[in-house]
From TrEMBL:
The keyword Glycosyltransferase applies. SUPFAM superfamilies: Nucleotide-diphospho-sugar transferases. Keywords: Glycosyltransferase, Transferase. This is Glycosyltransferase family 2 protein. The keyword Oxidoreductase does not apply. PANTHER family: GLYCOSYLTRANSFERASE (PTHR43685), GLYCOSYLTRANSFERASE 2-LIKE DOMAIN-CONTAINING PROTEIN (PTHR43685:SF2).
Length: 338
């Protein structure tokens, strides 16, 4: 297979009330030479997100804006964008993030992949401040399904850094061959679900040590305000994948089950806490006693939260990331280091 530098990229941006941030996202996509299309889906915004998107067309005709009259969720928005585009490569960009210059060059020089991702640089300071990512010693690696699932199992007491946050470029022909689309029942973990199904169908997922994606850390991020039922839908979707006859081998199914149980435990705890908040502690306890299969997750979750609170009170808070610096999702060795 030859290099992919001649392939055009479609950048897909699902946006909800993102008028203040989407301009930088669109501009960063249009600045990349391989980008042939930028499809923005305004997912029922109450601000001027769609108007900002239309105004950002640089005259090249590459920007297309689709507007939903009501909010339908990121999966539906991304599916609509995929259907409205034609470029052979698809790249997801969140409406409050952006690409660093030259984001696609390193990826498109690689071969033998169906999905390819680079590192993410998290920005904890004012995103208007100019910052450039480190250059890393080149390294590529293939993610197996088991690697991917294990890399999405979080651990208490550590900063979240699941590899499901990665934003791979995806080959359209792989999606078409396997009739793959985002699961529109999901409003949480929709990326994880799509990548898991792709890997189960034999996708080659390559990761490179290069950082071209800037993720702005915001306290009011929509992804941080999921509902309890969103967790329930995610674990049920994962269970359905695991139980699809002939899709996974025994080791893959075991890995998926570990992640599925973690998501289900979070759901059970959140559901218990919701009942306690809305109907009182006695009702929550009765709910738990009526579901003995959920009781271990609830009890361990409550105790774990209390232990975490005590630990946080005793420990000094982690040092903030200095202004002008990035926190990287994946460990890598900068060129300046030996």
């Amino acid at each position: 297979m030859t290099g992919m530098t001649g392939d055009g990229v479609c950048v897909i941006i699902a946006a909800k009330d993102a008028a203040d941030t989407i301009g930088k996202a669109i501009a960063s996509a249009l600045a990349e030479a391989p980008v042939r299309e930028v499809v923005v889906v305004d997912d029922g915004s109450s601000d001027g997100t769609a108007d900002v998107g239309r105004a950002l067309d640089d005259g090249s005709g590459r920007v297309k804006v689709i507007r939903f009259d009501r909010n339908r969720g990121p999966s539906a928005a991304r599916n609509a964008a995929i259907a409205a585009s034609s470029s052979p490569l698809i790249s997801i960009l969140d409406a409050d993030d952006f690409f660093f210059p030259g984001r696609f060059e390193a990826m498109l020089q690689e071969t033998n992949w169906d999905l390819i991702a680079d590192n993410i640089g998290f920005i904890h300071h004012d995103a208007s401040m100019s910052v450039q990512p480190d250059r890393f010693h080149p390294r590529t690696r293939q993610l197996s399904l088991i690697d991917f699932v294990n890399g999405n199992i979080s651990k208490r007491g550590t900063q979240r850094g699941e590899i499901g946050f990665l934003k791979p470029v995806i080959r359209r022909d792989f999606l078409l061959r396997h009739s793959l689309r985002y699961n529109e029942d999901l409003r949480l973990g929709e990326d994880y679900d799509l990548y898991l199904r792709a890997l189960a169908l034999g996708a080659r997922y390559k990761v490179i040590d290069h950082c071209g994606y800037g993720a702005v850390v915001r306290a009011n991020s929509l992804s941080g305000r999921h509902r309890t039922e969103d967790l329930g839908r995610l674990y049920r979707a994962e269970k359905a994948i695991r139980e699809t006859l002939g899709l996974l081998d025994a080791q893959q199914a075991a890995a998926v089950l570990r992640h599925e149980r973690q998501i289900k435990a979070r759901y059970e705890l959140r559901n218990f806490l919701d009942i306690g908040k809305s109907r009182g502690k006695p009702a929550a306890i009765l709910h738990m006693l009526g579901r003995p299969d959920a009781a271990p997750a609830i009890i361990s979750g409550v105790l774990g939260d209390k232990l975490d609170a005590v630990t946080r009170a005793r420990k000094a808070p982690p040092a903030p990331v200095p202004a002008g610096q990035l926190r990287y999702l994946l460990p890598a060795v900068p060129v300046a280091q030996k």
